[in-house]
Design a protein that fits this description.
The protein is mainly alpha-helical and 140 residues long. It has seven helices and two strands.
Amino acid sequence: MATPSMEDYLERIYKLIDEKGYARVSDIAEGLEVHPSSVTKMIQKLDKDKYLIYEKYRGLILTTKGKKMGKRLVERHHLLEQFLTTIGVQDENIYKDVEGIEHHLSWDSITCIESLVEYFRRDPSREEQLKQVRSELEME
């Protein structure tokens, strides 16, 4: 099982490869705001755990296991952003809030949130009803 830190690295690596076609240590370090030496250590751990294949000075390749996990983590992040947007969290708080909660939710909770987001998506009037309830509660 991946730790929260491993998940952050896998998510970042997956996104970089998806966007650029590759992931360099310097890009990972910059994106996660860590030192390149920390990235190298984590890459070695992810290699040992079969999430990626790392060859010094040649780069890294996500394994099938790493791609699957990376994709799942990116989707989880996106889902939580959608959820927080749907319930009315201010845009400037969403990224920080997602980062704060994404590792603390079970996959069962993620699945339930996914159903709730879909529930609101299927009928936009439901989101308007939620906004009305929030307004009423703020007035109390």
